[in-house]
Structure formats: C-alpha cells, structure tokens
Amino acid sequence: MKISLKLEYACRVLAQMGRLYGGGQLAHIEELAKIEAVPQNYLVQILNELRTGGLLLSRRGKQGGYTLAKPPTEISLHSIVTIIDPDLLESKVSLKGQSGTQVAEVWADISSKFKKALQKATLASLISRYNAAALYDI
C-alpha cells in the first residue's frame, strides 16, 4: 500500500506530539521538523490542516506551540487520513461491463474493512510501537 508523503509526515509528527501529550509541554515546529525529518515549510501546512481538522490546538507567541486536542487513544488513524488524505478512503470502481458490479462489490468490501481498521487503530498504537522498538535498541 502506498500512502502519501504528506500522510506519512502527519503520522510521524502526531506520534511525536503524542509522546509529549499530558506533560504540559508544547511542541515547536522547528523541533518537530528536526526530530521527524520533515521540511519545516511543509510541516507548517500539515499542522494547520490538523489544527483546522480539530486534532491539534495551537498557542501563539514566544511560549506558543502545538499540542494534541485530545489524548492519543482518542485519535484514530481514520481521523488523520480524513483530514490529510481523504482520497485514500474512496473506492471508485466503474460498474461497466459484465463484471463491473462484482468487481465494485469486492473493492467496496475491502474499502469497508480498511476504514474499520483505520477507525480501530489509534495514534497511541503508533506511540506504543515506537516505545516497544526503542526498548530493543538498548
């Protein structure tokens, strides 16, 4: 499966912000860009979309930054995809030809299962996978 670079960046940055969640610390664009290897100018656009979509809160000024709008356990991958790359959730198959209806039904079923998996998976699962991987690096 191929996801867009924009969606990959959004997931990486949100996972990083999820690690900070609850500690009272705000994330700063410069630090997020460096830690997650995301171009800073592109990151600004992504963070604005996530803020507009309701997943982030922002504070302006010298003490400003970004934080998650809700706990990582309450942010589904589906909500991230819906904001950043909604075309990934679409299943458009032509009904033309003798087999069109059957092909469309199979892809609709696969699409439905994919959406359910995205709704079940949360940002917390990305964080816990990272934390488990970090233990093996010791």
Structural class: mainly alpha
**What's the CATH H-level homologous superfamily?**
Winged helix-like DNA-binding domain superfamily/Winged helix DNA-binding domain
Could you name the ranges where pLDDT drops below 50 across 5 or more consecutive residues? 132-138
Q: Terminal Cα separation, in Å?
A: 31 Å
Mean pLDDT: 90
Report the CATH architecture. Answer: Orthogonal Bundle
CATH structural fold name = Arc Repressor Mutant, subunit A
What would CATH call the class? Mainly Alpha
Question: How many strands, what sense, and barrel or not for the largest sheet?
Answer: 2 strands, antiparallel
Say how many strands there are.
2
What is the 3D shape? Answer: elongated
Q: What is the oligomeric state here?
A: single chain
Helix proportion of residues, in percent? 55-70%
Radius of gyration: 18 Å
Word description of this protein:
- The protein has one domain: Winged helix-like DNA-binding domain superfamily/Winged helix DNA-binding domain (Arc Repressor Mutant, subunit A, Orthogonal Bundle), CATH 1.10.10.10.
- It has six helices and two strands.
- The two termini are 31 Å apart.
- The longest helix has 21 residues, at 100-120.
- With 138 residues, the protein is mainly alpha-helical.
- Helix 1 (5-20) packs across helix 2 and helix 1 crosses helix 6 (123-136).
- A hairpin with a 5-residue loop joins strand 1 and strand 2.
- A two-stranded antiparallel ribbon has the order 1-2.
- Residues 132-138 have low confidence and may be disordered.
- It is elongated, with a radius of gyration of 18 Å.
- It has helices at 5-20, 29-36, 40-52, 77-84, 100-120, 123-136; strands at residues 56-59, 65-68.
